[in-house]
Amino acid sequence: MIQPPSHFDERRPPITPQLAVRVAILGAFAFALFAIIFFRLWFLQVLSGDQYLAKANENRVREIAIPAPRGVIVDDQGRQLVSNRRAEAIQIDPQNLPPSGPRRQALYRRLGAILALAPQRIAHEVFIKTDPRHGLPYAAVTLTTDAALPVYNYVAEHQAELDNAVQITPVFTRDYPRGDLAAQLFGTVGQISPQELKDTVHYRGVRLGTIVGQDGIERAYDHYLRGQNGAERVQIDALGNPKGTVSTTPPAQGQRLKLSLDLGMERAAQDALGQAVANSTGDAGGAVAIDPRTGAIVAMASYPSFDPNIFSKPLSQSVYDQLSKQQPAPLINRAIGGVYPTGSTMKPITATAALGTPKASFTPGYTVDDAGCVTISKRQFCNAGKAVNGSVDLQNAIRVSSDVYFYTVGALLNPIAGEPLQTWMHKLGLGNPSGIDVAGESNGLVPDRAWRAHINDVQVACARRYGPHSLHCFTAGGAPLFSDGRPWAVGDNVNLAVGQGDLEASPLQMAVAYSALQNGGTVVTPHLGVQIEDNQGAVVQQLDVPPTRHVNLPAGEDVIRAGLHDATSQPGGTSYDVFNNFPVPVYGKTGTAQRPPHNDQSWFLCWVDAGQTPKPHGPLVVAVTIENGGFGAQAAAPAARLILSKWVGTPGQFVVGSSKTL
């Protein structure tokens, strides 16, 4: 049977070669694309699977820092100066907070009443600390770090009434068991600031919220004292809610810092300043006791002081303002930050400069007829009370503190090229930071011709900018603030030679200079840190501090030494009545610096050499200054005697001298 033709049987036209090529290209491209996707998936699933699994786990695990206790600070005998004290921190657990609204606000008001905090401040703290842009939304927010016992008990007993959103967490705060002793030295601690976090040299790897040293010794040795924070690894869900603790790494306490301070000497220095103020017209002061062989600070005191424990807990702005505005200011370390004219304690340094300047033709036998006053460049310079000392050589000029003698020496050195008086002052450490290992040191000032020209330029520039009568440049009475415009004159050098005029120096700088006179010319680098120890007291690192430099003292220094000894041990010496019965030889110099509009500044610089009686002791240099204290023999010298008494092991006695010399 013949089938009818159908269109389904019609043959399709053949594929052209061009079309076949196109199909092949598209197929190859699709295959290559598939191969790339396949191998990428294989790479992610097989080769990198463990890595991405770890990252996924990390995304659901967060770390909460456990603060490390800071290292303890001890004196040279291992006695604690700064330690840690367990305190109770009141914290808000953000996961248990009521929803935003009246209930949460009521909780804030109640907490504010308990902790004496404004509810708005609590709300702000919670917002900042739990905002992912600033803090950790799952971490507790600390409201106070040292809750009083009644507050602790109340919170512990009323958890349910506080919506179980308030927790008590043990923390460590700094404790100062010696009260106001050396308070200005230790400094404070606090959470690292955003600016400090950018300092990758000193704070590399330190996280936000870490407690670091903010000033003083705490800052200088923060790297050792800080310790290593621990961590609690908390598992969280996609909403950031904690689901349990994965692991805990305990914190490691910071290392122990041993200082060169001797607790007994520190207390003696602090008490000596207090007695000097109580028995004179003075109101503040500073003292330094230093080992002239090494620069180790044995004692450093400043009066008045304060109890640093007030900084171990949150401090209200009103309390801080009251403390910072108190006069005399207790926060200032006058031993390193107070700078004053030094009075006659500068005379041994002036004598050294003259002996070390060949062009001055000055020898220990150089004699001046001290008639009470001397005229230099048409101006009269006189001793205190115009006292007459007669013919004096170098040794006797130091013994009786003849201003006329050293006025003459200052005039002698003034025209010599190179400014030898200023050069020697700088050599011995004046006018520059000493390099001590705590912040707050003042540079001081050694005035010279360049400085005088500079302040003249500053005065002119100020008047040009602000006007000839501006209070930026002139006092209300019209006197210039920076300079009267005069050039350097011989009178400037004359005043400098006796520690007057524009000179400024700290007790520490003067102690360093006298240390060089005692030890034969080594300018030591003063320091407090001695060694780093572990928590059992084993030495981890010795903190060796090399001297700043060595200067060759000129021939004739033995005469200066003899004059300093005569000043304390021979009739007519300016501190003879203070030290004439002291059991060991003392080499010392009084100083009385005029400091208008203040009363005179009282100074005393001295040293004792190593000895065996009354008890074995090494050499020690002591510098004392009393603001508004009057003559050096009346306030500073008696205080220095108390400090030396403790050092050599003899009963302390505050003996007021009668000398009234500058």
Shape: elongated
**Which fold name fills CATH's third level, the topology of the domain at 63-259?**
Penicillin-binding protein 2a (Domain 2)
* Major sheet details: 7 strands, mixed
Any idea what the CATH superfamily of the domain at 63-259 is called?
Penicillin-binding protein 2a (Domain 2)
Provide structural commentary.
The chain is of the alpha+beta class. Among the domains are: 63-259, Penicillin-binding protein 2a (Domain 2); 343-389 and 402-504, DD-peptidase/beta-lactamase superfamily (Beta-lactamase), CATH 3.40.710.10. 34% of the residues lie in helices and 19% in strands. Strands 2, 3, 4, 5, 10, 18 and 19 form a 7-stranded mixed β-sheet that branches. A hairpin with a 5-residue loop joins strand 18 and strand 19. It starts with 16 loop residues before the first helix and ends in a 14-residue tail after the last helix. The mean pLDDT is 90.
In short:
The chain has 662 residues and is an alpha+beta fold. The chain has 21 helices and 23 strands.
